[in-house]
Amino acid sequence: MNPLTSVKGAIVTGVILALLIIVGIAEMGSAGLHFNEPSLARWIHILSGIMWIGLLYYFNVVQVPGLAAAAADKGGPGGAGVTKYIAPRALLWFRWGAVATWFTGFWYLAYGHQFMNALTLGGGGHDRYGLIIGLGMWLGTIMLFNVWVLIWPNQKKILGLVAATDEEKAKARKVASLASRTNFALSIPLILCMGSATHGLPF
Ligand code: HEM
Prior knowledge:
Helix content: over 70%
Shape: globular
Strand content: under 5%
Oligomer: single chain
Number of helices: 7
Structural class: mainly alpha
Order of helices and strands: HHHHHHH
Bound molecules: protoporphyrin IX containing FE
Radius of gyration: 20 Å
Distance between the termini: 51 Å
């Protein structure tokens, strides 16, 4: 049976390929296999970060403008199919991707005893690594708050997953879209901080 005919099958295939690469490279060296916990945390962190940010960019540059065009296209097919079948699925992977990204980032910091250093922004800027990864962590924490406190509860009203009057839906649209746009903007300096903590800032 072709495992690539299902999402689960594709994920399992990807993990097996990754494990083959790990074993293959270990076989080439003399060190053999040994568990590298921070590397595992970083790998899962980057995977879940791509899921979260990938869907955030999908919402901001594809779904929202697309639904606006569908609404403006009088006599057109409308956006009901997107709001009923696509948006709830995207929001599921989006909100849990956000949780997985935050906790794997925390896992990486805690393993290296760097969480307090990041939380305090490098002890008030004294430690450059703590300052940069700390800025990234705080941006990611604000974004996680926006997802679970502003975006998801309001999206449930907009999509009719919970009861809401037309007035409540109109207010929910404003709050959810502003919170999503904010996260879109914050993701850019966040990724700068994530990549620059150990590799240095571009300027
Ligand atoms: C939208 C959210 C986030 C995304 C997309 C993201 C993405 C990334 C990426 C791509 C890296 C690898 C950078 C590199 O190796 O050059 C990274 C590293 C890291 N991230 Fe995040 N991250 C996010 C949020 C967070 C949060 C909330 C935390 C903390 C709780 C965090 C902690 C870390 C740490 C500690 C590293 C390793 C830095 C290092 O020592 O090289 N990240 N992140």
